[in-house]
Amino acid sequence: MITDTPELALPRGWRTFLTLWASQSLSLLATNVAWFAITIYFTTVVYAADSQRPQLALMVGALGLLTSGPQIILAPLAGSITDRYSRRSIMLICDSVSALVALMVTLVVWSGSLNVPLLLLGVLLGRVAAVFHESAFEASYAMLLPEAQLARANGLMQTSYSAGAILAPALAALIIAFPQHLSGGLWGLGNGTGLVMVLDTLSFVVAALVLFWLRIPSPQERPAPGAKTDFRADFKLGWHYISRRRPMLLLVLLVGVTNFALAGVNLYETLLARFNLDADFVQRGLSFESGYAIMTTVTGVGTLLGGLIISSWGGLKRNRIFGLLIPLLVQSLAVLTMGLSRSLPLTCAALLIFGLSYPLGGAHSAAIWMSQVPRELQGRVFSVRRVVGQSSIPLGMVVFSVLSARFVPGPVVAVFGVVAVLAIVSALLGKQVRRVEDKTYLDELAAQAS
């Protein structure tokens, strides 16, 4: 196994983080392009008829379930491994596995054999690798950076996510159409979907090569030679850390409720564009592809602006909880508006506001947890946070898909927005969640519970 020096290397931590951030951002962009290209393929070719709405809704739900499900199931294992082994090695291995998975999908696309089962298998394998990568990456922030830089660093990652969302539609369309403009095509390809997957594979290779040369500290804790890792005990430790600090527990539960209602925005976009805004698209002379691309691009512009704001600002240094709750409330109201809208401009305005507030809330949430939880426990505590807070995501996607297969998606989205609004208003009116940054109070609660 590749070894790392466990000491914190703050003098060069920011430079190391920027290098890591740049390589991972490249990989994120390529994956977003691949995801957009495949979504367009299945929406306009495989399930193009109006009568296939139930099949499309269920497939979109299955994709969402496979995207979020591994996070819930494997988070305890990933968190335990993150705290016990080299975080750099974990990320390097995961990027290598992701490259192999992307290569597998590339070969299937190239041969013209892509179908729903193979696509779902590729998504599942890629997400399994991503769970371990994300756990190690998130726990590396505090090893590289001082507390004052945590919100800014998270803002940079949010900017990468949003930049990928903005650039992906245009890049996907450009690459897909590229072989058609060449006489005889490109290597026998009728369109550039295979080329998109090649670039996705290469991006993971680049990310792995960059990690090979970086030095990323890890905590001192390591398993004794030959000792077995007790994952159940590790998860129990993380659970006790959160449950004995009531504001933390309530915050995790609140995030679980809002994730149930808000985390499926990408799914909402697809079905709202296909079934709620179709008449408006026709009136404006837009195809589904063009209207859908506008919606995803607007969302990306919003998240890019929000990421740039939090990256340059650095976020709140005190009362960060308001930097989380207020953006969550704004997102909930935006989702409610999307569900009620039949107009592309109004929907895009809601998506822009949603995207703008998303990185602001996300960066403050991450900064709260990274500053409150000891570095050597972050993998295990964060794994419990993910399981409790994100277990509602696949449930929300399944509920949304089932309801949208039977009813028009718009009202379903609006109801989800109302649920989130009520949960966040209750947190703002209460006192416990707002004390999540009072470390003295949290430690007193933990001591009493012990």
Automatic annotation (TrEMBL):
Task: Tell whether Transcription is among the UniProt keywords.
Answer: no
GO MF term set: transmembrane transporter activity
Where is the protein localized?
Answer: Cell membrane
Organism equals: Deinococcus detaillensis
Q: Which Pfam families match?
A: MFS_1
Q: Where are the transmembrane segments?
A: 26-49, 55-78, 161-182, 194-214, 248-268, 292-314, 321-338, 344-366, 387-405, 411-429
**InterPro entries, per this entry?**
MFS, MFS_dom, MFS_trans_sf
Which named protein is this? MFS transporter
Location, primary (coarse class): membrane
Q: Which GO terms describe its cellular component?
A: plasma membrane
Which keywords fit this entry according to its UniProt record? Cell membrane, Membrane, Transmembrane, Transmembrane helix, Transport
